[in-house]
């Protein structure tokens, strides 16, 4: 089920919604995001983003940390992080802390 997501911006501080868990699926050899009655397969980049959604740092801060770690343009990383967070919010897998 999808619906309207709250507005997600670089200043948003978010975390996984209650009941949503990151789990390794040994049978399929991938990591999945599990929520009640639904799952989402994640690639390595998505896993790193989900692990960073700690409810303490803004999306801009997370993007800045990734940019420093990977030597990539912060603008591109920020766009990718916000887009992915928006998708998780639409799927009701994310909640906004601030």
TrEMBL record:
Gene3D superfamilies, per the entry: Coenzyme PQQ synthesis protein D (PqqD)
Residue ranges that the Swiss-Prot or TrEMBL entry lists as coiled coil: none
For this chain's UniProt record, which GO biological process terms are given?
pyrroloquinoline quinone biosynthetic process
Q: Which GO terms describe its molecular function?
A: quinone binding
Keywords on record: PQQ biosynthesis
Q: Which Pfam families match?
A: PqqD (PF05402)
Under which pathway is this protein filed? Cofactor biosynthesis; pyrroloquinoline quinone biosynthesis
Matches recorded under NCBIfam families: PQQ_PqqD
Assembly and interaction partners: Monomer. Interacts with PqqE.
Q: What is this protein called?
A: Pyrroloquinoline quinone biosynthesis peptide chaperone PqqD
């Amino acid at each position: 089920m999808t619906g309207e997501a709250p507005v997600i911006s670089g200043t948003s501080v978010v975390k996984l919604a209650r009941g949503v868990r990151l789990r390794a699926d040994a049978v399929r050899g991938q990591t999945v995001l599990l929520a009640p009655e639904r799952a989402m397969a994640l690639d390595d980049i998505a896993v790193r983003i989900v692990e960073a959604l700690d409810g303490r740092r803004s999306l801009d801060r997370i993007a800045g940390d990734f940019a420093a770690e990977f030597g990539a343009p912060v603008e591109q990383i920020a766009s990718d992080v916000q887009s992915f967070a928006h998708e998780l919010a639409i799927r009701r897998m994310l909640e906004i802390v601030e």
